[in-house]
Design goal:
Blueprint: E1 5-16, E2 19-25, E3 32-34, E4 37-39, H1 46-58, E5 61-62, E6 66-75, E7 78-87, E8 90-91, E9 100-106
Parallel strand pairs: 1-7
Antiparallel strand pairs: 1-2, 1-4, 2-3, 2-9, 5-8, 6-7
Length: about 110
């Protein structure tokens, strides 16, 4: 059999100068600092998904997200795929969401979070 269950997700490293936008995630299944992102909806393109997820979780509209990696994890009866993007092009006002609070973390402080 060549088919399996796959959860498709996206994350994006949004950066400006020497700072990175991280989410302090509060959900019980996965807490702590992470890149914002989420699930790709049925029929949605990967790029549209990352733009939508970043808007929902940060309030920012990103432009020209660049695919820079893919990560996979095994899950029960399948795999979990994460399409990793990065961009430094965005506009809007930064907001928090139910997923967690957003923080600009300078490159030299990354080890502290």
């Amino acid at each position: 059999m060549r088919t399996e269950n796959v959860d498709l997700t996206v994350m994006c490293l949004v950066h400006k100068n020497d700072s990175y936008l991280l989410q302090n995630r509060v959900k019980e299944d996965w807490k702590g600092y992470t890149l914002p992102g989420g699930h790709i909806e049925k029929g949605e393109s990967i790029v549209d998904a990352v733009i939508r997820e970043i808007k929902e979780e940060t309030g920012l509209t990103i432009f020209n997200p660049h695919l820079c990696g893919v990560k996979q994890f095994p899950i029960k009866n399948g795999r979990y795929l994460v399409f990793l993007f990065e961009t430094d092009q965005f506009e809007g006002n930064l907001t928090d969401s139910a997923e967690g609070t957003m923080h600009w973390i300078s490159k030299d402080r990354l080890r502290d979070v």
